[in-house]
Design goal:
The protein is mostly helical and 213 residues long. It is 52% helix and 0% strand. The chain contains 7 helices and no strands. It has helices spanning 34-38, 42-55, 57-91, 95-131, 180-183, 188-193, 199-208. Helix 2 runs parallel beside helix 4, helix 3 (57-91) runs antiparallel to helix 4 and helix 4 runs antiparallel to helix 7.
Protein backbone atom coordinates (compact mmCIF):
# COMPACT_ATOMS: atom_id res chain seq x y z
CA UNK A 1 0.00 0.00 0.00
CA UNK A 2 1.68 3.28 -1.11
CA UNK A 3 1.74 6.07 1.48
CA UNK A 4 2.39 9.40 -0.31
CA UNK A 5 4.24 12.19 1.46
CA UNK A 6 0.99 14.20 1.51
CA UNK A 7 -0.65 11.65 3.84
CA UNK A 8 -0.89 13.15 7.32
CA UNK A 9 -1.59 10.03 9.35
CA UNK A 10 -2.18 6.28 9.27
CA UNK A 11 -4.60 4.17 11.32
CA UNK A 12 -3.43 3.19 14.83
CA UNK A 13 -3.07 -0.41 13.67
CA UNK A 14 -0.10 0.74 11.58
CA UNK A 15 1.60 2.80 14.29
CA UNK A 16 4.03 1.75 16.99
CA UNK A 17 3.11 -1.21 19.19
CA UNK A 18 5.10 -2.92 21.91
CA UNK A 19 5.88 -5.90 19.67
CA UNK A 20 9.54 -5.57 18.59
CA UNK A 21 9.86 -2.17 20.32
CA UNK A 22 13.12 -1.75 22.25
CA UNK A 23 12.85 -2.27 26.04
CA UNK A 24 9.12 -3.01 25.81
CA UNK A 25 9.49 -6.14 27.94
CA UNK A 26 11.31 -4.27 30.71
CA UNK A 27 8.44 -1.96 31.64
CA UNK A 28 4.70 -1.91 32.08
CA UNK A 29 2.62 -0.19 29.43
CA UNK A 30 1.87 3.47 30.17
CA UNK A 31 -1.86 4.28 30.20
CA UNK A 32 -1.30 7.01 27.63
CA UNK A 33 -0.63 4.33 24.98
CA UNK A 34 -3.15 1.69 26.07
CA UNK A 35 -5.76 2.45 23.40
CA UNK A 36 -3.23 2.41 20.56
CA UNK A 37 -1.74 -0.81 21.93
CA UNK A 38 -5.23 -2.36 22.13
CA UNK A 39 -5.61 -2.21 18.35
CA UNK A 40 -4.47 -5.07 16.17
CA UNK A 41 -0.87 -4.60 15.04
CA UNK A 42 -0.57 -4.90 11.27
CA UNK A 43 3.02 -6.16 11.43
CA UNK A 44 2.05 -9.00 13.73
CA UNK A 45 -1.07 -9.90 11.74
CA UNK A 46 0.86 -10.19 8.48
CA UNK A 47 3.60 -12.17 10.19
CA UNK A 48 0.95 -14.69 11.23
CA UNK A 49 0.00 -14.99 7.57
CA UNK A 50 3.68 -15.39 6.63
CA UNK A 51 4.29 -18.13 9.19
CA UNK A 52 1.14 -20.11 8.36
CA UNK A 53 1.75 -19.84 4.61
CA UNK A 54 5.44 -20.72 4.74
CA UNK A 55 4.78 -23.79 6.87
CA UNK A 56 3.15 -25.39 3.81
CA UNK A 57 3.90 -23.15 0.81
CA UNK A 58 2.96 -25.79 -1.75
CA UNK A 59 -0.55 -25.79 -0.32
CA UNK A 60 -1.17 -22.09 0.22
CA UNK A 61 1.47 -19.80 -1.31
CA UNK A 62 0.02 -19.13 -4.75
CA UNK A 63 -3.51 -18.64 -3.44
CA UNK A 64 -2.36 -16.16 -0.81
CA UNK A 65 -0.10 -14.29 -3.23
CA UNK A 66 -2.80 -14.26 -5.91
CA UNK A 67 -5.32 -12.72 -3.52
CA UNK A 68 -2.88 -10.07 -2.28
CA UNK A 69 -1.79 -9.15 -5.80
CA UNK A 70 -5.44 -8.82 -6.82
CA UNK A 71 -5.80 -6.20 -4.09
CA UNK A 72 -2.59 -4.50 -5.22
CA UNK A 73 -3.92 -4.31 -8.77
CA UNK A 74 -6.94 -2.38 -7.47
CA UNK A 75 -4.57 0.09 -5.82
CA UNK A 76 -2.57 0.48 -9.03
CA UNK A 77 -5.74 1.02 -11.08
CA UNK A 78 -6.99 3.84 -8.87
CA UNK A 79 -3.63 5.57 -8.37
CA UNK A 80 -3.67 7.94 -11.37
CA UNK A 81 -7.19 9.21 -10.66
CA UNK A 82 -6.46 9.90 -7.00
CA UNK A 83 -3.19 11.67 -7.73
CA UNK A 84 -4.85 13.74 -10.46
CA UNK A 85 -7.61 14.88 -8.09
CA UNK A 86 -5.06 15.74 -5.41
CA UNK A 87 -2.88 17.69 -7.87
CA UNK A 88 -5.89 19.69 -9.03
CA UNK A 89 -6.66 20.63 -5.43
CA UNK A 90 -3.03 21.64 -4.80
CA UNK A 91 -2.97 23.74 -7.98
CA UNK A 92 -6.21 25.44 -6.91
CA UNK A 93 -4.53 26.43 -3.65
CA UNK A 94 -6.59 24.09 -1.46
CA UNK A 95 -3.63 22.22 0.00
CA UNK A 96 -5.54 20.89 3.00
CA UNK A 97 -8.25 19.37 0.82
CA UNK A 98 -5.55 17.67 -1.24
CA UNK A 99 -3.90 16.26 1.86
CA UNK A 100 -7.26 15.13 3.23
CA UNK A 101 -8.04 13.29 0.00
CA UNK A 102 -4.73 11.43 0.10
CA UNK A 103 -4.96 10.73 3.84
CA UNK A 104 -8.51 9.37 3.65
CA UNK A 105 -7.55 7.03 0.81
CA UNK A 106 -4.46 5.81 2.68
CA UNK A 107 -6.39 5.14 5.89
CA UNK A 108 -9.21 3.33 4.08
CA UNK A 109 -6.93 1.16 1.99
CA UNK A 110 -4.58 0.33 4.87
CA UNK A 111 -7.50 -0.92 6.95
CA UNK A 112 -8.78 -2.91 3.98
CA UNK A 113 -5.33 -4.47 3.55
CA UNK A 114 -5.31 -5.42 7.23
CA UNK A 115 -8.76 -6.99 6.96
CA UNK A 116 -7.57 -8.88 3.90
CA UNK A 117 -4.49 -10.18 5.70
CA UNK A 118 -6.53 -11.27 8.70
CA UNK A 119 -9.06 -13.04 6.46
CA UNK A 120 -6.28 -14.85 4.63
CA UNK A 121 -4.48 -15.96 7.78
CA UNK A 122 -7.80 -17.08 9.25
CA UNK A 123 -8.58 -19.25 6.23
CA UNK A 124 -5.06 -20.68 6.00
CA UNK A 125 -5.10 -21.45 9.72
CA UNK A 126 -8.49 -23.16 9.55
CA UNK A 127 -7.45 -25.27 6.57
CA UNK A 128 -4.11 -26.10 8.24
CA UNK A 129 -5.79 -27.27 11.42
CA UNK A 130 -8.34 -29.27 9.47
CA UNK A 131 -5.89 -31.02 7.14
CA UNK A 132 -2.60 -31.17 9.00
CA UNK A 133 -2.81 -29.86 12.56
CA UNK A 134 -0.27 -27.50 14.12
CA UNK A 135 3.28 -28.84 13.96
CA UNK A 136 5.23 -28.62 17.21
CA UNK A 137 8.92 -27.60 17.14
CA UNK A 138 11.54 -30.30 17.52
CA UNK A 139 13.71 -28.04 19.65
CA UNK A 140 17.20 -28.89 20.92
CA UNK A 141 18.12 -32.21 22.44
CA UNK A 142 21.27 -31.25 24.33
CA UNK A 143 22.79 -32.78 27.48
CA UNK A 144 21.12 -31.34 30.55
CA UNK A 145 18.30 -29.68 28.58
CA UNK A 146 15.10 -29.85 30.62
CA UNK A 147 13.02 -27.18 28.91
CA UNK A 148 10.42 -28.67 26.54
CA UNK A 149 10.85 -27.76 22.85
CA UNK A 150 7.72 -25.57 22.86
CA UNK A 151 9.35 -23.27 25.47
CA UNK A 152 12.94 -23.18 24.24
CA UNK A 153 14.61 -20.15 22.66
CA UNK A 154 13.00 -19.47 19.29
CA UNK A 155 16.03 -17.71 17.78
CA UNK A 156 18.82 -20.25 18.09
CA UNK A 157 19.41 -20.66 14.36
CA UNK A 158 21.61 -18.69 11.99
CA UNK A 159 20.42 -16.03 9.52
CA UNK A 160 19.74 -18.75 6.98
CA UNK A 161 17.11 -20.19 9.28
CA UNK A 162 14.82 -17.18 8.94
CA UNK A 163 11.25 -17.93 7.87
CA UNK A 164 10.72 -17.79 4.10
CA UNK A 165 8.43 -19.40 1.53
CA UNK A 166 11.05 -20.02 -1.16
CA UNK A 167 10.85 -23.37 -2.88
CA UNK A 168 12.82 -24.12 -6.06
CA UNK A 169 9.94 -25.92 -7.76
CA UNK A 170 7.27 -23.55 -6.52
CA UNK A 171 9.18 -20.51 -7.78
CA UNK A 172 10.29 -22.05 -11.08
CA UNK A 173 8.09 -19.55 -12.93
CA UNK A 174 10.10 -16.54 -11.70
CA UNK A 175 10.35 -13.91 -12.96
CA UNK A 176 6.62 -13.90 -13.51
CA UNK A 177 4.05 -11.23 -14.30
CA UNK A 178 2.45 -9.49 -11.34
CA UNK A 179 -1.07 -10.85 -10.88
CA UNK A 180 -0.42 -14.13 -12.72
CA UNK A 181 -1.89 -16.14 -9.84
CA UNK A 182 -4.82 -13.71 -9.64
CA UNK A 183 -5.83 -13.56 -13.29
CA UNK A 184 -5.64 -17.23 -14.23
CA UNK A 185 -7.06 -19.54 -11.56
CA UNK A 186 -6.48 -22.57 -13.79
CA UNK A 187 -2.77 -21.91 -14.37
CA UNK A 188 0.28 -22.78 -12.27
CA UNK A 189 -1.60 -21.99 -9.12
CA UNK A 190 -3.82 -25.08 -9.19
CA UNK A 191 -1.12 -27.34 -10.61
CA UNK A 192 1.34 -26.37 -7.90
CA UNK A 193 -0.92 -26.21 -4.88
CA UNK A 194 -3.62 -28.77 -5.70
CA UNK A 195 -5.53 -28.18 -2.43
CA UNK A 196 -7.17 -31.37 -1.22
CA UNK A 197 -10.26 -29.38 -0.31
CA UNK A 198 -11.64 -27.53 -3.40
CA UNK A 199 -14.14 -25.69 -1.18
CA UNK A 200 -11.24 -23.70 0.29
CA UNK A 201 -11.43 -21.09 -2.48
CA UNK A 202 -15.18 -20.54 -2.06
CA UNK A 203 -14.76 -20.21 1.69
CA UNK A 204 -11.97 -17.70 1.10
CA UNK A 205 -14.24 -15.61 -1.11
CA UNK A 206 -16.91 -15.59 1.60
CA UNK A 207 -14.38 -14.44 4.20
CA UNK A 208 -13.12 -11.66 1.95
CA UNK A 209 -16.58 -10.32 1.14
CA UNK A 210 -16.45 -7.92 4.09
CA UNK A 211 -13.12 -6.35 3.11
CA UNK A 212 -14.62 -3.68 0.87
CA UNK A 213 -17.44 -2.11 2.84
Amino acid sequence: MPIPIAAEEVPPEFRQHRYLTANAAANFLDQDWQHQEATRYATREFKRLLYFTCERPNEFYTDVVGTIEGFEQELIAERDAIERKAQNLFKAGDDQAGRDLITDNVKQRLLESLQLGMALSGEVERETRKQFGIREPEGRDEPGETTPPTSQDMAEGAWGDMVHCYDEELHADYPREHGAYTDDPSSNRNRRTAPSNPAWHSEMNKSLSFVRL
